[in-house]
Design a protein that fits this description.
homodimer, OB fold (Dihydrolipoamide Acetyltransferase, E2P), eight-stranded mixed β-sheet, 16 helices, aspartate-tRNA(Asn) ligase activity (chains A, B), aspartate-tRNA ligase activity (chains A, B), ligase (chains A, B), nucleic acid binding (chains A, B), EC 6.1.1.23 (chains A, B)
Chain lengths: ~600, ~600
């Protein structure tokens, strides 16, 4: 080895010893005759001192050092002179008195500072990713990602799970997202698809008697890219036999709580993870993956305002609608234009409008509220008692703003849910240190697709319906509940899971309800239906997204920050400039031709 | 959980306890009124007894059980009646007296026996892979593979390596094997390629300062398939900074010896792993990945026969050729037609012919050999002393066969090397329990490609030349040695590795020697050359093939047996029937059209 220790390990205990280190020139400072180099490797920094009185030749060579040069130094570990210690640095009490220096490689001046945490243009970071990854923040993210995956594997291995690799080149089964196609050279006109997930394969592994399977699996979906969606992503793919929902949620809670305790012990979270019903959280948060780090729950005012003189409210309720609201803390002073903007947001998200009630500029006690503090178009139609009841229901105080929506239940929930998320973020209500895990259960098995006028699976077609809802399957599919359990965290769905169907006839019936012809069922799912005929055990699974989990634990806003070589929003890998043109011979080999006239 | 223990864990210590198990009906035997079921799960078998006197209803239900039904049983753990114990089974001293039975799923009669180790048609095994994987042999292979990968990760994690995922969708860089192409939807006429290996990416990670990287990486090459080559394969991809060849070989020897000790402790191997030079092993074994479990080394007879009266030998040497031989134990009795077949093999592999010398039918002492025992066309031209010297050089005894080839050195080595491999296998000279690891070093950096009349890299273009051979680089590239270290095991190259070039100018020069234009160098490798300008550390790496390592440790003849869902030799996944036709809309989305007139 060109080094016998790492920079970050050098401390007072080693004073007096000789050491050889190798790494990058992080900083250089000259003080009189002395040259000070902060030497960096993956483990940290250590100060190296070149003194011309020690060795003039080495000192002379050190004069040529510039940042990001790769060097090897040998010298003696020494205490820093009193008063020059750096308490912020792990190695700040010591320095290396350099006796010899080898320049292993030079460096051009980097296009941005590697040694400072400054904002750098995104495309520059992607183009010079090998420099971006040298920065402390990115290095920590990469190490955290390693620690997350290592911990997950260890946790599952200890519990009898087998990691099994499943193929990536599969038959195209166009369900859900768009497949990436790979033309076959041996079979002209036919295509492989890149696995969107190992779903059917892991179910086959259950049929194969594996019982406990997992894989840190690469998956591919040809969807339009966003800052937060990559062409390829990584999920913890997991499946177990002989389990029910409770077993799976217990496993997941154990896995994720132990994970946080081990890789991010400074983060705060509650246990047990709440288990919430889909229908309830839609009423309370207006979305199926609420950020539970803050309250601001959606309150139902229907009983309070049903008999009020305000026609918008009473009329809505008379027509079977609902009146619901959120209380926004400290926003009683919002201006007309600020409120207009919120109304626009609500309208964009399905509400007919929004009735705001301002409880004034100043904090106070609700019992002392007078009509003078209240500002609202509805004020003159409502009594003080009614307003106090509304405020109380929304947990609003004087100084707060109440946003009320009236109308169809689903639209009202959706609009207020969006406002809750928007305002919670704007007001900083969520503790950035907190991790609010929760399970969401009792999803409907099917969702009606208005556009195509057909039922579609709420999650995927392999989810088992509730036993007690089976009689409704054909007559009222919309009322059938599925054996789902999603895990949400800080406003993200980090894992979707379910107990699966394991009998051929039930699986076939579900495909039929989804509108598939028998021919299509055979073509897409024939192998699974066949396999179920040969002793398929009851089983269930889950697929947490690794990229998202790491991003949340790293405190990063997008998953791109925790992927070593991401593509930009246009799907371009700036480092590699892909995709690229290929030769005509390559194209001919796979029996395709390219449409260039588009 | 539908079970509270695993079948394989039930033993005498648990006698008297109640237990609930779930699994598959492995065997059923009826004895009078009693029904015996061997219940199987992933951990093993346990005998379950249904007694009508215990519970007639449960017994009645048990009558319907057939093999591979999935069941749940509850009952009491009891010692087997004296004389009925099965010492071959871990659970053979006990049985479950069943009190209740639930049939979780039924099974059709499987197309082959899951409970017996019988030969089954390969295509049937692939079509019903979920049943094939239930068989003990395949289950053990899958578990072994898990153990291998788990051990490797643990070993490297403990040594400061970070596992980092690199992208699979890359720019096409047509070097070496054929790329799988993935048409881009967003960039009409452009293609991604599936990664053939993370080579350039892992070198960029070294430039990024990661220092110690590994990945259990999926790789893709669109080559013609064989029993032993899959469309996608898995390698341990590994790279380190600040190392030389010795550091890398030390790491690999530690990793592989610890691996065997942990996952296959019954296997025998020698340490330290021999480090052999390429030129030497070509002389001694005639191939660069010799099976070192047996001797039969190629002996050079040139000095013995240079002055002999046999013109084939003396003439060859006079013309600058060599005369070499192998001694084949116990084959002095080979018939004329058996020997003819060996001569044919030698000719197919480049030799002009073969001169056999039989040392007779019977074993004996070489000193007692007389000309009467010797049978050969060359016998009358050679003295007994010469024949004894030849035999001694080949370590041949009376009763053995000596196969001599004369001619060009490389052709003679190649032909005798092939015969050595062929006869070693036929005679069973290799101990199937032995693992003969060795490193091969000092490969030439370049190999002359006769067909294209250009130099090509012996391994890949990123390997660093020997420092002392740099002056030869332009004038005599064929004499430049590379800093390679391959790891061979039992006749397979299981890992190719090298210290890499880390300076732009040297890397560019190597690309030029390989005949690349500057334009092509920029297009294919520009990002790496650019990266080397910004402080690239000295680094090296290696990429052991996981599939092959597991197959050797499992004692399996092909890698297909250690891959859960392999494709057959025609590239077809019989379970999924891929590749498949896709819809015109899918084809249109990626701006290609299919040539159907081929």
């Amino acid at each position: 080895m060109l080094k016998d220790r790492n920079c970050g390990e050098i401390d007072e205990k080693l004073i007096g010893q000789s050491v050889t280190l190798a790494g990058w020139v992080h900083r250089r400072r000259d003080h009189g005759n002395l040259i000070f180099i902060d030497l960096r490797d993956r483990t940290g920094l250590v100060q190296c001192v070149f003194n011309p009185e020690q060795d003039s030749e080495t000192h002379h060579l050190a004069e040529s050092l510039r940042i990001e040069y790769v060097i090897q130094v040998s010298g003696r570990i020494s205490p820093r002179p009193q008063g020059t210690e750096n308490r912020k640095l792990a190695t700040g009490a010591v320095e290396i008195l350099v006796e010899s220096l080898v320049i292993l490689n030079e460096s051009k001046t980097p296009p941005f500072y590697v040694n400072e945490d400054v904002d750098v243009d995104e495309s520059l970071r992607l183009k010079f990713r090998y420099l971006d990854l040298r920065r402390e923040r990115m290095r920590n993210n990469i190490i955290l990602r390693h620690n997350v995956v290592t911990f997950i594997r260890q946790y599952l291995n200890e519990r009898g799970f087998l990691e099994i690799e499943t193929p990536i080149l599969l038959k195209s089964t166009p369900e859900g997202a768009r497949d990436y196609l790979v033309p076959s050279r041996l079979y002209p006109g036919k295509f492989y698809a890149l696995a969107q997930s190992p779903q059917q394969l892991k179910q086959l592994l259950m049929v194969a008697g594996v019982e406990r399977y997992y894989q840190i699996a690469r998956c591919f979906r040809d969807e339009d890219l966003r800052a937060d969606r990559q062409m390829e992503f990584t999920q913890l793919d997991l499946e177990m036999s002989f389990v029910d929902e409770d077993d799976m949620m217990t496993l997941l809670e154990g896995l994720f709580s132990s994970l946080v305790e081990n890789v991010a012990p400074e983060r705060r979270f509650n246990q047990p993870f709440p288990r919430l019903r889909y229908a309830d959280i839609m009423e309370r948060y207006g979305c199926d993956k609420p950020d539970l780090r803050f309250g601001m729950e959606i309150a139902d005012l229907s009983d309070i305002v049903a008999q009020s003189l305000f026609g918008v409210f009473s009329g809505t309720i008379a027509k079977g609608g609902v009146v619901k609201a959120i209380g926004v803390p400290g926003c009683g002073k919002y201006t007309k234009s600020q409120i207009e903007e919120l109304i626009e947001t609500a309208k964009k998200n399905g509400a007919g409008g929004l009735v705001p009630i301002s409880l004034g500029n100043e904090a106070g006690v609700l019992a002392n509220l007078t009509m003078e503090h209240v500002k609202s178009v509805a004020a003159k139609y409502l009594t003080l008692d009614q307003i106090q009841a509304i405020a109380s229901r929304c947990e609003a105080q004087p100084g707060d703003l109440i946003l009320i929506a009236a109308g169809d239940r689903n639209r009202v929930n959706a609009a207020l849910g969006t406002l809750r998320t928007e305002l919670g973020g704007r007001l900083g209500l969520a503790d950035p240190n907190a991790l609010a895990f929760a399970f969401v259960t009792d999803f409907p098995l099917f969702t009606w697709n208005q556009e195509d006028e057909r039922w579609q699976p709420t999650h995927h077609p392999f989810t088992s319906p509730w036993e007690q809802d089976l009689p409704l399957l054909e007559a009222e599919p919309g009322k059938v509940r599925g054996r789902h359990y999603d895990l949400v965290l800080n406003g993200y769905e980090i894992a979707g899971g379910s107990i699966r169907i394991h009998k051929t006839e039930l699986q076939r019936k579900v495909f039929q309800i989804l509108g598939h012809t028998e021919e299509r069922i055979q073509a897409l799912f024939g192998q699974l239906l066949d396999a179920f005929e040969y002793g398929a055990p009851p089983h269930g699974g889950v697929a947490p997204g690794i990229d998202r989990v790491v991003a949340i634990l790293a405190g990063e806003p997008t998953i791109r920050e925790v992927i070593p070589f991401p593509k930009n929003q246009a799907g371009l890998d700036l480092l590699f400039g892909s995709p690229s043109e290929v030769s005509q011979a390559q194209i001919d080999a796979v029996h395709i031709s390219v449409k260039t006239d588009q």
